[in-house]
Structures
1.
Amino acid sequence: MNPVAGDPRFFERAGPFTLSQVAEAIGQSAAGLPGERVFNGVAPLQTAGPQQISFLTNRQYSAALAETTAGAVLLEPKLAHLVPSGTLALVSDRPVLAWAQVAALFHPRPALNPGIHPTAVVEPSARVAADVEIGPLSVVGARAEIGPRCRIGPLVSIGEGVVIGADSRIGSHVSISHSLIGERVYILPGARLGQDGFGFDPTPTPTGFVTVPQLGRVVIEDDVEIGANCMIDRGSAQDTVIGAGSRLDNAVQIAHNVRLGRCCVIVSQAGISGSTTLGDYVMVAGQAGLTGHLHIGQGARIGAQAGVMTDVAPRASVVGSPAEPVREFFRQVAFLRRMMRRDQAAKHETDAGQG
């Protein structure tokens, strides 16, 4: 089956659009462009036709570019010379951003369908803006507040007192309690926000461990995206905070009292233990684990499957478990490989002498 972008069974379609309209969407001047050209969609290089737009960000796909029949291709200026004749080069210093803008032009988000589904339950004391969409079998608790133009999917549970800011989207089967959520926040299906943090007296009594009450909240600032099946625990006494503009991939665990700065990126299956603080623009790769009460400096990068047990300096990059600076880690790897080769050579000489 050929790859398809924007299957109409699942995605809204708009257009067609002239080249000048496409240029306007990516913030470029239409001067000098053949504005009469018309495009009806976007597609991969391999399947795009003369009325479709594609994109390229990596030279390793230059073979596909050479054979494409796309009407136009978004790409960096340094790759423009690779565009075949008959295809228009739309150059951009940020081709991924330009692709996002063009794709959104042809495939805008579905329009809201304001109203509360007959099977949804909304407590009378909840404050719900008139243009909010609430899907089937969802529940909105007492004193909850849902701002304008929000979409609440099916089977969502919004607890008492929860606040959701304007233009937010809450996916199906999400549960939210003890949370204050900003504007333009997207929470994908299955996420759990505001549940009890993992807090208890570590010395068991004769009947087991005693749970410490979790009295904080979850605070999600503006323009955050939270992936499917993420878990964000509320704080024990202070708040768990996800900074503005941050992105959490699917299946991320954020423990109680964690604080993320602005525009942090946490990749799938990473876990951050309680009371750890991340500065702005920190990136945590997949399956990394951070112990509690750490400080990760602004702009730091945590490698995939890293085990972070000590503070990380600003703009540092660490890998491995226990995590170490990248250069030190690979220096040790190289040393061990040299030792192994030397040992293998010595064994080979010994075996040859014995033979």
2.
Amino acid sequence: MDSPDLDLPRSVALALWLQDLGPASAADPAPVARLVSAVQGDDEPHAVVSAPDTAELGSTLAELVDVWAGGARIVAAALPAPGDPAGVPAAIGQLAAAAGECLLVATGARSYAAIPRVEEFGSVYEPGHLVRWEVVTVPEWQTGLIGQVGSLADAERDLRTALTQATRALAALDVARWRPDAAEAIASLRSDGNPGWRLPRGVDARRVRVLASAARLRAIVALATADDGGAVNLWQADQRSTALREVDRAARRAMSAATLPAPDPDGRGGSSD
């Protein structure tokens, strides 16, 4: 079984690229084009669906980025799940949890949430994805997100704990016995390799390290929870899945923490401009 690719959520990629994007310039559209190309990847061109009060944001990813690139902005990503809002504003909590991710943006005048709705098509041999970003205005989100996610240092510490939890849960699952193919893939995910993501140059090595570690843990959880494995009864299956859900929770929050703006010297969050 080949080693599975490490998934970088689209909201995380878009947050990192928006943070790195300098002021927009009609004379130099290249930065926006690079961002769009990196975030879209092999997807079909991303569409934008705006609420009536956000129609000025356009109908394509490039148009949306053009608007947000025109001034100062604070950007982050959140990765909620059912029962775990992960700092997402309550007004869009259900939609964001269903998507598993959300981009949060604050400009000088308003705050926004952009939720990618992904539709798969094609086959396992030639998969395709249609992506629509649903954009709505939301209340101030920075305080709630930072309170839930914590700092990058917190995330690194929690990831180390999560790795220990995952190791114990995998030992209890006895993955090698009941799914040797998955065990081989999980072993490959534990290695420290370059995830091969297309990221902006401004992303520092620490953030990349946290993102890669979190992505590996999420991939391990996905493989290990594909079925109940060696669980003898429902209680054991529930105990093991609960342990791995906690691992996934730590990994999701670490990914979000890696997108938080670096604090200014006076302790406040910074913007990209």
